[in-house]
């Protein structure tokens, strides 16, 4: 019998695997519902017809929605973080904290690898969430996941343009996940960019499905002067991977 893809990709306890399976199923059910499909369609119409990317009523609609990164994307993200040895990760757009579990597993395991090699190492995932009820749900799921992830995550509640623009951020950021309201992607990147190490990975979700909404971000990330090398990964909705490789004198 073949090994499930999740077990092949992700090193985690059975408890964490079971939790993630349950959360991804709940998120997928929401995303496939007619009401959610209609919500996304209305959002695109509002953008094309009125240049309106968001409306206050949308916050109310999304308050109980997972909008979690798809499971296959999470597996890719975890492996990319493990392969790059990322120790300090920023997640813009935590929601219920599903993708955060993958990032925290990667950081914890990378730290353990460093220590096993006789090096002093520490790491953390700086996660962001504006909605207090979502932050509470995320913390509850991390507690359910247990010590494999809980001690690695620092959740910052509030406006991420403020919570990420502080002196207590990691001096060097190895990995940035942008899974957030699309107009916030570029401002977030610009805040984090001075801390990105050379070779840092930046992932942006739904860059295919929401491409018009990402225009400013995509224009920036593709401009050679800004130092990124980028490819589009053909997952559902699109997933863009960029590597920060600025020219040095």
Automatic annotation (TrEMBL):
Q: Select a single GO molecular function from the record's annotations and give it.
A: O-methyltransferase activity
The UniProt entry's GO biological process terms, in alphabetical order, are: methylation
Keywords annotated in UniProt: Methyltransferase, S-adenosyl-L-methionine, Transferase
Query: Pfam families in the record, alphabetically?
Result: Methyltransf_24 (PF13578)
- PANTHER family, A to Z: PUTATIVE (AFU_ORTHOLOGUE AFUA_6G01830)-RELATED
Which family does the record assign? Belongs to the class I-like SAM-binding methyltransferase superfamily. Cation-dependent O-methyltransferase family.
List the protein's name: S-adenosyl-L-methionine-dependent methyltransferase
Biological classification of the source: Eukaryota, Fungi, Dikarya, Ascomycota, Pezizomycotina
């Amino acid at each position: 019998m073949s090994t499930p893809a999740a077990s092949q990709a992700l090193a985690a306890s059975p408890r964490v695997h079971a939790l993630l399976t349950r959360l991804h199923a709940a998120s997928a059910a929401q995303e496939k519902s007619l009401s959610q499909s209609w919500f996304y369609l209305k959002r695109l119409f509002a953008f094309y017809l009125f240049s309106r990317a968001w409306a206050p009523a949308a916050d109310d609609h999304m308050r109980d929605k997972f909008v979690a990164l798809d499971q296959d994307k999470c597996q890719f993200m975890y492996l990319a973080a493990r392969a790059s040895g990322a120790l300090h990760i920023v997640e813009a757009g935590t929601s219920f904290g599903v993708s955060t579990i993958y990032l925290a597993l990667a950081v914890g395991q990378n730290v353990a690898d460093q220590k096993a090699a006789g090096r002093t190492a520490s790491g953390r995932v700086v996660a962001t969430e504006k909605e207090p009820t979502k932050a509470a749900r995320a913390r509850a799921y991390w507690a359910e996941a247990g010590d494999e992830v809980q001690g690695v995550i620092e959740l910052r509640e509030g406006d991420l343009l403020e919570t990420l623009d502080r002196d207590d951020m990691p001096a060097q950021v190895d990995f940035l996940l942008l899974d957030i309201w699309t107009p916030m992607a570029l401002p977030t990147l610009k805040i984090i960019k001075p801390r990105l190490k050379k070779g840092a990975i930046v992932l942006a979700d739904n860059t295919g499905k929401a491409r018009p909404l990402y225009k400013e971000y995509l224009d920036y990330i593709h401009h050679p002067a800004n130092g990124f090398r980028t490819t589009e990964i053909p997952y559902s909705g699109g997933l863009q991977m960029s590597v920060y490789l600025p020219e040095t004198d």
